[in-house]
Amino acid sequence: MHRVIRSFISSESAGKAAANYNLKTMRRKSTPQDDLFGLWASPLPQGQDQCAKARPSRIQYVRYARVAVDEPVDGLFDYGVPLPLVEQICVGSIVEVRFGPKTTCGCVVELSSSHSPEISPNRILPVKRILTPEYRISPDLLELGKWMSDYYFSPLGQTLRCISFFGFNHFAPEIQVAYSLTRLPGSPSGKFTEKQLKVLRLLETSHFPLSAKEILRATGVSASVLDALLRKGLVQKVLTEKREVSAANLIPVELEAPLPLNADQNRALAAVRRAMDEQLSSAFVLHGVTGSGKTEVYLQAIQHALDLGKEAIVLVPEISLTPQTLQRFSRRFGNTVGVYHSKLSSREKYELWRRIESRECRVLVGARSALFAPFENLGIIVVDEEHETTYKQDSAPRYHARDVAVVRAKMCKCPVILGSATPSMESYFNCQTGKYELLELPHRVEERPLPEVHIVDMTREVAEGDNPALFSATLVEAMRQTLESGQQVLVFLNRRGYFNFAICLACQNVIRCEHCDVALTYHKVGNRMLCHYCNFQQPRPTVCPQCGAPEIAMLGLGTQRVEEELTRLFPQARVLRFDLDTMKSKYAYPKAWQQIVNNEVQIILGTQMIAKGLHLVNVALVAVPLADVSLFQPDFRAAERAFSILTQVAGRTGRSSIPGRVIIQTYVPHHYAIQYAQSQDYRGFYEKEIRVRKVLRFPPHQRLIAILGLGKDSERTRELFHEFSRIVENTAHPHSDEVSVLGPTPAPRARLEGQFRWRLLLRSANTSLMRSVLRRALERWEKTPRHSHITLTVDVDPLDLL
């Protein structure tokens, strides 16, 4: 990546610099001085910085730090290291520095005994302080961050903030009173009460002293039991650093033995073990039908990594999967398992880092960002349900965790397993071309049959007029039979809310968001219309805001409406709704999962959160009331997503001795995605879809880069984005036989959060050439006088074009 080392000096020059960076990946606007020296410096205004005001104008530092700041700017900035910090600071340290008129954070990428020669020494500001001095981003993660910054056109500072295990935050050790053993009990158990023995055993197995709160929470005893042990001299009070430890990590876990493997599982495991033994950075695609035992292969491969003295990372696509996955991994690996996801507070992430640092945590299970766990001796990475779109981040850096996992595994010389019943087209294509190795599990464990899938043609239902309701007669009867037999029903609908949209029957006006070019969704709770993009809300309209007619119709269906209909049809059954509206807190997922496991609910209704990887042993029927929701999105991946979600949700049933059934309602029963999902034929779908992609010249045959232009003013955004597009076309023209420029066109969602959106696509089989063309075009664009009037965002390997 082209980087320019610069010194950050004044609020005035930083203000100018900030105005020149209108791209989130941020290439700078060149000036004659820039071309030679990086960012040209101007004097610091009086009174702007007390630290700078107090220091001598010609101070000489013994060490200089080159910092990637957490701002939308590219390159490194020189700062002086004050003497008190010289012994503490190191490459990877998170620091607080002055950047223009404000204080910001950054990561030290380089240390040197001299500053850049083109920078005047009396214009270099000092590092203010080191945040969490005991923490630093490790060298291997720094290298990974540099690769991500370059590949995804993302500022290095913002990329490193993403990689930092708890962001750019400061945590100081807190001192607390804790308890430890003075000696091991060793006496006959009759001399102690059962409650006292629970406390003594807990402290005996703990790696560190525990607070009274942690002891009482883990054992369930009262404070008087602890006081009694203190009086007997069996435990003592000590001062120690405060640690926030989950009660589950304090209680000794009875470990489960590995399960026997079938021949296919054994072959897959042997290949992964061989790669670990030989320190090969192999990428394996573990393609197994739903219920084929992929998780057991993961578990035994991770055990091999632990036996080699190494650590493991396991990625899951949704927080909803974390409780089940954590439970299963903890039963195998005990308290060495940690969990990481976005619902954790920064303090909880910091405490988890402390467990990793002390090697108490050696297996980390979590969502996308768990990939950046600071393990020193990583032995294996598992990406479960690797096809899921949630592995793609939608803000800078716009990385795909699956692809970055492959890069990190290569850097760490360890294997990565990409597991799925419906692998992404890109991953399976990489297997066909020899880039990845395919491992297949074609049968369910214990030879259990795949569920029987029945398709209901809703066009016929509507035409005959017998039952134009949400559920066909066939589906209602199947649900009734399943509930009467004491088994659970899973209803999948990928729509939140009650109705999808409101329309005026007089003028056909759809009630839309004031800030986005999308229809508002009606939510019965609160009787409000809600935008799922910017959270704009308004009361349900009684008259049309355009023509004033009172003929407002509510159309479509969402999970709230289906929940109401299910409650009406089956009043004795308890319905659990599982969507973003009901799963807002970090405790909602574990609670819901426990209710499902304990058979406290009879009908599980949810969005795609319930379609991914959950092991639901008592679900005998899966119902899909409307399979066409994702099929006709304006995106070339629509068929792949429809096939994948239907196959995955079908796989939630028949996972025990109880045979499973699936009923799919659709208005396009003959579409190939529906047909192949019915037969659970991934290979057939892949061969059909790959031919379509080849004709379209879309991934995986060729790669894409999407550029969005955003602006508040409709006409100016259109005009400037067309000007930018002409620069891209002119830059790509010498390579027109290899790089295609598609657009510019309004984005399908032409307005979101008050900004108008235009889109341009680059397409090529030569990714390096395509990225080089875009980089040169961006540099030329930033030299134009009006470039800062719109914002450009770059998305490399986009997963959707909306």
Describe what this molecule looks like in 3D.
It is a single chain. The chain has 802 residues and is an alpha/beta fold. The protein is built from 24 helices and 30 strands. It has a seven-stranded parallel β-sheet with strand order 11-12-10-13-14-9-15, sandwiched between helices. β2 and β3 (76-80) form a beta hairpin. α5 (139-151) crosses α6, α21 runs antiparallel to α22 and α23 crosses α24 (767-781). The radius of gyration is 29 Å and the shape is globular.
Concise overview:
The chain is α/β, with parallel strands linked by helices and 802 residues long. The chain has 24 helices and 30 strands.
Task: State mean pLDDT (0 to 100 scale).
Answer: 84
Quickly count the helices.
24
Distance between the termini: 29 Å
Task: Tell me roughly what share of residues is in helical segments.
Answer: 25-40%
Largest sheet descriptor: 7 strands, parallel
| Oligomerization status of the protein chains | single chain
Determine the structural class based on helices, strands and strand pairing.
alpha/beta
Unreliable residue stretches: 1-57
Instruction: Determine Rg (CA atoms, Å).
Output: 29 Å
Total number of β-strand segments?
30
Could you say which overall geometry the principal axes of the C-alpha atoms support?
A: globular
- Please give the order of strands in the largest beta sheet: 11-12-10-13-14-9-15
Percent strand equals 15-25%
